[in-house]
Structure formats: structure tokens, C-alpha cells
Amino acid sequence: MEAQKKTPETRLFRSNVLNPKDEIEEKLEKCAGIVNSTISGLPDREAHDALNQTVCKSVQQHEDVSLGLLYIILTDPASAPKAYRDLSFITRDGLGMIINKVVGIVTDKFAKLQEATKTQILWLTTELVKNSVLGTENLCAALLRQIVGGDISPPNIWLAESMLNLLSNNRPWLEKNGLFLATALYCYLRLIQDHEAAPFKNLRTMEIEFCISLLRERFADCLPIGRDLVRLLQSVGRIPEFQALWKDILYKPQTLSPQFTGLTQLLRIRTSRKFLACRLTPDMENKIIFLTSKVKFGQQKRYQDWFHKLYLSSPESHTLKPDLIRYIVGVVHPSNEVLGSDVIPRWAIIGWLLTSCQASAASANAKLALFFDWMFFQTDKDNIMNIEPAILLMHCSIRSHPFITSTLLDFICRMMSNYCPSLDGFVRQGVRNGFRIIQRKKVVISLSPLLDNPKLERGLKVLVKRELEEFCVPGVKLEEASTDISLQSSSMMRLGGELGSMDTSKDIETEDSGVDDELEMPDEEALFSDPEEDEEMEGIKNEPIEKDYEFKPIVKEEDTRQGGGTSASTGEERESNEDITELEELENIGEELKSLLIQFSRESDPTMRCKRMENILTGVIDLEDSEVDDILKPLAVCLNFCLVDDLLISCFTKERNVEESLESPVYELFRNICTLPTHDVSRERFLSLLSALHEVNNKFGYRFLFYLKASESDEERLTMYEDFATTSRGEKSLQACLIEDLKVCQDYDPRAFRYIIPSIYRKFAEHVVGDSEILHMLVTNMEPIQLNTFICEITLGELIIFGEQKQLDTLIESTLDWESFEQYCVWQLIQAEDVLLESIVGILPLLKPEQHAEALANLLILMKSVQPSHDLLTPVLGMECPDKRPGNQFATALLRYWSQEYSSELAQLISQQVSKQLSGGKKRKNAKNQPSVDQVLSHLDWLHNICQEQEDISFFKQDNIRSALDQARIAGSEARKSRFKMLFSLCDEKETRKRTTRMSRQQAASKQSAASSDESDEEEESIKPKPTKRRKKTSTSVDSDSDD
């Protein structure tokens, strides 16, 4: 009974009491038993014959033996090569059945496999690829699908890296499978986005090299991917290798392939479902299909929460959401029955995914994924089902969630002219084609409730009128929208009949349209800018700023209303279609201020806006003391509403210099704070108002820093920031306040950050010098020009970054995971500041050549320039020193250099180090970091090898070194003597030299004695042996005194 309660032992899948042994494993185990009973005790040749005879009996026997050998391969790594060889000999179908079985296991049960089994599947796949077995590409495709997007867990990274190595090492095989080559490219081009963190630097580099080589060498095979290839290339467009590729795509397309005529050719090809599905695991795909075909509208929340918990809960998972949206848009095309049922529609699921996007970049990528087919829609090639979710999401959100409608409509209108300047006509035509077929097919009864909505903000109305004028025909009013929406199900039923034939006819369009569009040469800055740069780039070009509306969950409308305004932590703006008169806070600030705020919100002239702001500040001064506390917070919410557009624009741009940028209503409050006396009551009120504004929108903090820096040339005004920090953040330290505001500045306005940061280091040195967080922000935004400026100012003594800290090694250790250029900047600044080397070399024992090449290279250059000392040598000798070549290259190179330039000093230091360890004297403070005798000997051994190769071992002939080696040999174990046999042989040479010296001295003494005996009488000759003995003693005594 007890045995039955135990969890069954499994070697293939993970199991427990609740999940018993899998049926597939039981079958494979049984087949393995048949194989073992057939070949048990037989030599190899007889075993082969026995297996062949067995498989020839019937198809079932062939299957059983094949599956048995597969089980051995997957569970016994040691026997796997022999089992694979046997399998290759006895197969009757070219291993087709085996490949199909493994594909089934990978597709359906990969997550349940033991880690060792996964490793064996990769091994088997590698063998199949090496032997070019037919159908292996299906197995590789199944494994690629198991690489989860937005997941940086170790198992997922292992699988991504293993598959990449397999494909890279078998490039000829890959190039013979054109369709799978395109799939692999699509997969890894997408995965590059997930591996931006420093720990995955090597993997990311391999992925970039792999994708670039395929695109440049096999571009014709990549063309079938279609327009989503452009979308993925856009997401990695900042990487230098892809920047160069983009230039060729835009300006020299035929250098990539003679058949490639230009970007429009790619954008005309609708991406096949195979590619869109390959970035979702089979488990994800099953859950999405279940959600879109079985779950009723209104009952989806628990299923969405379930899906979110499984796949979207980590911070990195935001990159998966565009993959999901592209899959829902391009692959999930519901049948007529589903369209007419109460099943949750696709637009509602996409709306949920959009609302879960927190960062502006993630939101922009998700919106692009939704509209991408619409932007390039061609009525003769594209499927209307690819644009149906977007129009329905906008249309069905008009009443309940107008901010969703506004932000999506704003996005698609701006994409018509801003996506790529040279393609604006092409994109504009695609968007309009989509609207035309929506009207013709009656996807919505009328576009008027969407395009003629009176609640749209003024700027958006102008934009819609300009871009979509032909569709802005007065028709159904907003009040009739609910009736329109209620008819949606029946209209989609009618539409479904027309969509059915279109749905499967054009999975992929590879034929060239024959149109060779001439591409305009756009500004480099305007090309496919990353979402993070949108605000800065648009500010530079003085184009209208696209607001980044915050999505709020559809199911929580009541919460949204109760939340009042914007988030205090993120400073996101309100919905653009909301008028200031709709703010509840406006009713709590008094009639006079209310009137001034309404005028301010409706004013568009910059000069008049500044005057309106000044009038509001005057109204704040006139408030009674008893009113101030109650009014400031609602006033801050209203002011933020009026100023939010100003805060979206960069502090200054190429077209607007610093002085001109200060002519904004945002800075009127700052100007008053700076000009009023320190203890003035009005100044205290303004500081409190600024604190309230900062709680509503955290961009006000760095804007105040920018004003203090820009308004005066002597930087003295920056000290006023302390008053603001004390007022606004209470018990927070000034350092914490600076870090908080600089972080926001770095995220939203990198140019302003670069402008402010030198003054921060000068005026707040005691709070920021030597701080790793601020240093990281500095080098993250560092440009070569600014690096040069910093180095010059540090050299002149006008700037200090690291300070005179005794131990900087902790700070340097925190930089080891930063990007290469960031570390390069840090080391350049260290050299400029002449940081004491002893304060940073403590990190040497922690450094690994394969992980910390930047730090090691720079430390080697720095340490070459100084004379060795105990504090410098100790951490060098404490570094790990492998026995295999090339040992520790850093330590060997540095010791070799020192042995040439400072030979005697280095020899003395090494001798002292060995003597100290052998004597076991008093422990130093850092005794735990002291190198052991074996570590010292390992480094000396490698140094000795290098010296022998260079035929210069003079360093090891010094008395200090030989004495140290002699002590280590005498005190060492037999293992040590054996390990460092060559090194200790130098001591034997020393003993030989001693004996040779003694013999030569004895011979000299004998000759001297013989000469004196010729001149002496016979009596002296009788006592001749005695002086000889003394001479021997004297000779021995002298020799011992001079002994090495």
C-alpha cells in the first residue's frame, strides 16, 4: 500500500501525485523494454542483426523498436550515440515517424519535460540536422515556438541560445530550407528586443550577427515574411548594424537582392499566418483560441486574469503584447457562427491588452501592431478581417471610453504623415483604402459618430479633418451611436459571408507588384524613430505633439471616475477630449481663480498664456491664509491640466535656444519663486503650490532644476532647489529628491538631463559625488561630445565625479553589468580624475575575462603606468588562475610588464607576500582577500612560462624570487611540489650554483696553500694540513655568509 502512494518514477516528464505518469512515457518505456530484451547480452553486430530482424516482421514491430530507441536517446545520454546509430540503421521511413513523435512531444508537452530530456531533444535535433534528415525543419520550428517572448528566465534563455548555436553552426543546412530560414529570422529578430539587459549581452550580439548575416546574404529568402519584417526591423533600428541595413533598404535596395525594388514591395506583402503564429507558444495559442471562441462577453475577466498571471505578469512581458495583438488581428478570424454569438469579440480582447500597457513605448508598439495592416491596406490583396478589430474598438468605445477612441484615432491619423516621410502618400492611401472598405462592407453603420464626435479635442478634430476629409460627412450623430453599436452583431453576420472566401486565399503574397516607387531621401532623424524618442524628435521638428493617453481598464470605469485626475507618480495627462470645466477640482478653488483658469486653458497665444499664468499667481497671493491649504491641491490639478501640453515639449531643442525656451507659462511660477525674498509669505505659497504640482505631475521637479540652471549663468540659484525639496518631499533626503527628479528628466528629456547634470555635480557635490545611481544616469545619456567636455572640466579641476573615497571598488562593482559604452565612459572619467588606484583594485578577484572585459582592459592600462606596491599586487595575485591556457591573461600580462620595468621591486614584494603567508603572522584587515601561496605560485608559474617563451628568465634569477620559491617548496606538500615542479626546478639550479661556488673557492684556497709551502721550511710543511683545514673552514664560513 505504501508503495502505491509514492509518486511514480519518471525519466521523461515531471510528475507528482496529482499528475501521474504520462501515457506517452509509459508507451515509450514499454518499447524500450522490447529493445533491451532483444539486444541484451549481444555484441554490437549481432545486436544490429537482431534489431533488423525484429523490425522486418511488421509495421508495429518497426514502430515499437524505433520508439524504444528514441526513449533511450531521450533518457540516457551515455547510450544516446549508440541508440541513434541503431535507429539510423533500422529505420524504414527515413526517421519520419520519429520526427513526428518528437514534434508532438515538443508541441504538446515541452513544459512538462525534465530538463535532462530537453537537453537530449536538442542533442537529437543537432544530429538530425547534421545528417540533413528530411523533415527536421519541422522539429526546429516546433522548438523555436517554445521560446517564450518577453521571458528572460534561465530555461528560456538556454533554449534560445541553444537553438541559435544549432542554426549558426549548421548554416548550409539552414540555407537549403528557405521557408524555415525566414521563420528563424522572424523569431530571432523579434527576440533581440527581449535581451537588452547586460547579462544577455553575448546572446544579443549573436542574435544580431545571425539576423544581419541572413538579411544581407539571403534577403530573397526573407522577402516572404512581408510587412511584419519592416515592423520588426523598426523595433531594432537603433542598433548600429541595423541602421546600416536600413540605409541599404531605403536607398540601395538592389544591393541586398536583385529582386528587391524597395520598401513598398515589402509593405505590400501581407505577412503569413505562419509567421504571426510562430511567436506564440502552442499553449498560448490554445488559450487565445479558447478565449475568442468559447468565453461569453462579460464573463471574460477571470480568464484574462488567468492568462495575465501566466504570461504577462513580469516587467519584461510588455514585448509579448504586440505579438498577441498581431496574432489576434491576422490569424484569429472568427466564423459566422461566432460573429453572431455572444462570445467575446476580438476588439474587446485587444482593448484589454492595450489597457495593460504601462509604458509609453509599450503602448506605441501595441497600437502599431493593431494598425499595421490598416496602414498599408490594399483592397485586392488584404483581408478586411485584419482591420475590423481596430475600427470596432474605436467605434464601440465612443460612449463609455472616449479616451480610447481618441488616442487610437489620433495615432492612425498621425501615422499617415509621420510614419516615414518618404512613404506618407503610400500610408495615407492605405488608411483611406481601409476606411472605404469599412464603409462599403458596413463594418459599422456610419463613421460619423467616430469622426464627427463633438467631444474630440480641438487639435484632434483639425487633424481628422485634414487627413480624413472625405469621410467627415455629417450623418449619424453621437446620440445615435448606441443604436449603431447595437446593430453590430447582425452586420458582422452579414459581413461574415463576404469574408469567408477571402480568409484563406491570401496567406502570403510573394509576387512583386511591379511598381518601383521612388523613395524620397528623408532626414535621418525622421526615419522610423523608436517610441522613446517620439516626443524629443517631434519637438525638434516643431511638429504637433502626439499625446500619449493613458489606457484604463474597460471593466473599471467607475474606478477611473473616482480616481479624479492624473497619477501622482507618473504624471500622465488626462484625456485630451476633456474640458477643464468638467474637472471636479475646478469647483473647489473659488470663482476668481476658476475664471482665470478657464481663460488660461482656452488661450493659445504663447505670450498671452504667460500673462494668464501670471494673473493666476497674483490670485494665489491674494488668497486668505485660511483658504490656502484647501485650494492649493485642486488648483495644482487644474494647472497641470492646462500645462500638460507644455510639459510634453522638450526643455529646449535645436530650433529653440535656452533663453527662448524659458518663455513658457510653466516657468512663470519658478520665476516668481526665484525673485521673491527668502522669507516672503508669497514665496512660501508658491513653493507649496510647486510641491502640489509635483505630486500631480513629477515632471515639475526637473523642470524647476532646468530653470534654476538656465536662468542664471553662475549656478547659484540651484541652491533654491533645497527649499523646494524640503517643502515637497518632507523627510526625504536631498540626495533622494535629486535622484528622483533626475531619473524623470533622463526618461522624458535626455537633452535637458545632459544640460543640467554638470551643474548638479558642482553645486550638490556632497550628495551626488560617488553615487552609482546618478553615475549610471550620467553615462547612459553620455554622448562623445559631452564625454570630452567632462574630461576637460575634470582635468581643469572644475568637476569631480568620484571624489576622494577610500574604497571605490563597491561603486566600480556596480558598473560591471552596464553597457560597454557606459563602462567605457566610466573608465575615461576615472582616468581623467586620477582616482587612487588602490581604492578600486579590490574588485580584481571578482572579475572574469568573459564577463568583464571592459573593466579588465582599462585596469590593465591604468596599472601599467604605476610602480607595483603591496596594495596593488595583492588583489592581482588573488585573481583566479586556471591551469589551462591561457591562464589569467590579465595577471600574467601585468606581472610580465612589471617584471621588466620594476624587476627588483616586484621580486621583493612577491617574496614578502610568500613569507607572510607561510609565517602565518598577524592577520590584516582584509586577510580574507589575501592570496594563498598556491595562488601566488600559479601566477608565477604562468609568468615563468611566458618568460621562457620569450627567452628571458632574468627575473627568476633574483635572490628574492629564488628564496621565496625555496620557502614555498620546503613548506609545501607533495601535491604542490608535483604541480609546480618546473617552477621549483629553479631552486635546484640555485643549489647547483652554490656547490659550484664552494668548489671553485676550495680550489683557489688549495693553490694558495701550495704556493706558500714552497717558500716555507720543512717544519712548516709538517703542519700543512692544519691551515688547510682552517682554510676549508674559513672558505665554508665565507661561502655560507654570502649564501643566497
TrEMBL record:
Q: Where is the protein localized?
A: Cytoplasm; Nucleus
TM stretches of this protein? none
The biased composition feature labelled Acidic residues covers: 509-522
Q: Does the keyword Cytoplasm apply?
A: yes
Per the record, where are the segments of Low complexity compositional bias?
1035-1044
User: Which keywords does UniProt give here?
Assistant: Cytoplasm, Nucleus
Q: Name one Pfam family in it.
A: HEAT_Ints3_C
Q: Give the highest taxon in the source lineage.
A: Eukaryota
Q: Which residues form the Ints3-like C-terminal domain?
A: 597-986
Keyword Ubl conjugation in record: no
Similarity comment text for this entry: Belongs to the Integrator subunit 3 family.
Q: Which PANTHER family match?
A: INTEGRATOR COMPLEX SUBUNIT 3
This chain belongs to the protein called: Integrator complex subunit 3-like
Q: Which gene encodes it?
A: LOC116300098
